[in-house]
From TrEMBL:
This is Thioesterase family protein. SUPFAM superfamilies: Thioesterase/thiol ester dehydrase-isomerase. InterPro entries: FlK (IPR025540), FlK-like_dom (IPR054485), HotDog_dom_sf (IPR029069). It comes from Pontibacter locisalis. Residues 14-117 form the Fluoroacetyl-CoA-specific thioesterase-like domain. Gene3D superfamilies: Hotdog Thioesterase. It holds the Pfam family FlK. The lineage of its organism: Bacteria, Pseudomonadati, Bacteroidota, Cytophagia, Cytophagales.
Length: 128
């Protein structure tokens, strides 16, 4: 049984594809905040994968990230999500992202588990 305080871990291997880039080019050759945020959301999603039924899917509801230190190409970032709250269909986690003992980022993720049919209706383009 999954309960608050349980953890899930995801290892993110930093590659050049994770570097901070915008339309005007490379900003810096370290893992971007965007890439870290995506990995943090995945770490929280590991709970969703354990909880959802075959006819259900998760959808993100919130994400905060406090980017504290760079992660360099070739480094392994360990993202540990801790289940903070499981209330109905809502999964809330806090997480830390570290390279060894160095804190790279921390924050919070939220996801809801919905029936795939309901989710398809919510995400369907609306006719104007």
């Amino acid at each position: 049984m999954i309960k608050p305080g349980d953890t899930r871990t995801y290892i993110k291997h930093v590659t050049s594809a994770d570097f901070a880039r915008f339309d005007d080019g490379l900003v810096h050759a370290v893992c971007s905040t965007f890439s870290l945020a995506q990995a943090a959301e995945w770490a929280g999603r590991l709970f969703v994968l354990d909880l959802k039924e075959e006819d259900e899917e998760g959808i993100g509801t919130c994400l905060t990230i406090n980017h504290k230190s760079p992660a360099f190409e070739g480094e392994k970032v360990e993202i540990t999500a801790v289940l903070e709250k499981l209330e109905g269909n809502e999964v809330t986690c806090v997480y830390t992202a570290k390279v060894g003992e160095r804190l790279i980022a921390d924050g919070k993720t939220g996801q809801k588990i919905l029936k795939k049919e309901k989710l398809a209706n919510v995400l369907a383009p609306k006719k104007v």
